[in-house]
Amino acid sequence: MFTGLIQGVGQVVEQEKRGGDTRLVIDCGDADLGTIAVGDSIAISGVCLTATEIDGHCFAADVSKETLKLTTLGNFVVGTRVNLEPPLRAGDALGGHMVAGHVDGLGVVEELHADARSWRLSFSVPKPLARYLASKGSIAVDGISLTINEVDDRRFGVNIIPHTMSHTSLGDRRIGDHVNIEVDLVARYLARIAGYE
């Protein structure tokens, strides 16, 4: 379980195809990921993976064929910057919202423009995810906990403060780029209880 509060931006330094799967090596740079050990979960741009090796500031993770198909990780190349978050531990502050690291689908950056010192971004999502969007609700975009400002059918808009823009990979995004979307866990369970799934 995660909070969507990114602890640092890392970079893909190795990408090795292995029988349909991929092994990624991520350099954490200055990110303090605490006491991550082999076997621990870590969110990479919103995707929960398992650290399989640790070497200094770098860790390796295996990415399954299914994850490569359903997330942006299939498009990663050496040099891709990624958002990093260690798992939530008992007693940690929950400053964002509950994020599982299970990507629901790919969104597309539709608009991006400056708004005073902040940035306004809008994203479109696949039609099945639109029912989970709510104004002032929570959503994770590439693992970042964000508040939805407005919703228009399959599109939603967010406001990004300068700190978030400069301390996550959102600063790298351009119109047309794909992003990992995880809808709010509460919205997903409420839809299931109400019989919408």
TrEMBL record:
Keywords: Repeat, Riboflavin biosynthesis, Transferase. Pathway: Cofactor biosynthesis; riboflavin biosynthesis; riboflavin from 2-hydroxy-3-oxobutyl phosphate and 5-amino-6-(D-ribitylamino)uracil: step 2/2. GO terms for molecular function: riboflavin synthase activity. Pfam families: Lum_binding. It comes from the Bacteria. It is an enzyme of class 2 (transferase). Its EC number is 2.5.1.9. Lumazine-binding repeats lie at residues 1-97, 98-194. Homotrimer. This is Riboflavin synthase. It comes from Salinisphaera japonica YTM-1.
